[in-house]
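Milestone M4 deliverable, item 7.
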Amino acid sequence: MTGDRVPSTAARARAARRIAAGGCLAAPVAALLWVPAYARRGPELAGIPFFYWYQLAWVPGCAAAMFIAHLLLRRPDRRHP
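Output delivered:
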């Protein structure tokens, strides 16, 4: 029966990396969509209300999350052993 196959270790590792990459991409989205968590004025940073600097802090955070997801999903170079 073809339905009784057990996935190989490599297939499980690939699936785990895909799930981790999805988590990296979902974290900034969830953090920015949950507006009540940051819809306030204080604490201020250099006179800038929390609402604004929280969102601006996620710009490099999103870039870092996308880079980590890229590293998790990229394929190894098969030309060099």
